[in-house]
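New to this. Help decode the following:
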Amino acid sequence: MFSSTTKSIIFAGFALFAMFFGAGNLILPAMIGVEAGPYAYTAVIGFVITGAVLTVAGMIAAGSMREGESRIADRVGPRFGLIFTTVLFIATAMLYPTPRVAAVSFEIAAVPFVGSGHLQLFVYTVIFFGICYVLVRQPTKIVSRIGGYLTPILILLLIALVVASYTLPDISHPVEPRYAQAPLASGLIEGYFTMDSLATLMYGPVILGALATSGFTGAKLRRGMIGASILAGSLLAVCYVGLVHLGSVGSGPNGAVVITEVSRELFGTTGQLVFGLIVFLACLTTALGLLASSSHYFHNLFPRISQHSWLLIHLVIVFPLSNLGLERILSMVAPLNQLLYPITISLIVVAIIELVTRKHLVWAYRLGTYTAVVLAIPEALNSTGLSVFSALRYGLDFFPLGYLQMAWVVPTIIAIMIGLVYDLSLRSASQTEVAV
């Protein structure tokens, strides 16, 4: 029915979808359905732009690696690339998302059945990371395991839940002021918090490696990456729209409660079990992707330490962090996201411009990234909540979108455009000299 090439792209796309689709991707769209009321579908367009379209762009950018290049951030400078990429992997694979998905899946999937408590959390995380260890132990098979087995189950469960929700009547929710005033912009900001753009620079080598193992090389490898990325992004977009509808027929203080109550209303106790399994699979596949990509990166960085040893090091770090509980995890590492996200998005945007223009860019990367760094640092410091940094807010709010904690956006765009014009003028001058 499908050629081996098409099957490889489908498996890679399914795996990529599951790696991205964690607890936040499940819960945030449902809450849009509750809070945005009649503006929900306008808001979800914004959510799809930052939660799916930007993610696809990031993966396509990750697939644009130049010959001999190991990190996209090296285009700013080798030292910057090493420091930034290493911090990115430490923050996302060790300190924050991996412990978070374990803690979130415990809170949502396990607590309703086993209750909360330190002992229950300890036992759950032993089982959760034990499964991760077994499945990541053979990294060459991680994509086929996620794409061929876990993702289809996850998608089928989501489809069953969303389709069944159309038998329930819509609830007339009061609209949150931010959605009434600017539904599209509010949706964009919510999608920003999926954190998927950060993961694109991590998952790129994993998907490229899987496709290369299947015989993809050169231009075919790049086309395969684009196909897998578009498939994953399309699945994410469809899921987001369906989950918004779940919010429109349910209610609750957060997305987890909303989906739990809708599941229970539709299927009783079985529904709660189905939702628990959805959350468990979503969190498990995200953890698998993070652990596999990060252990691979650090093995390449320090080849004397085996990839298996790096996996064990990761597990030794994430296990105690996941047992701190969700609130402590969020408070400890949230400022890192404010620092890393602007830099990552700047790199992705310039990489896409480079692909489209087919020009070798230098200053567009440097000026855009440096501008993002300058504004991301005070934003990250302010997000710590420490009073010593509170005055930074006044300066940041002078910038367009500063009140949305996105003061970096407009200056970074301007810096990228200046760098792009300079790069093109240098190239034009060089070509003129050659012609003369």
Summary: The radius of gyration is 22 Å. The chain has two domains: 4-323, 327-435. Residues 327-435 form one domain.
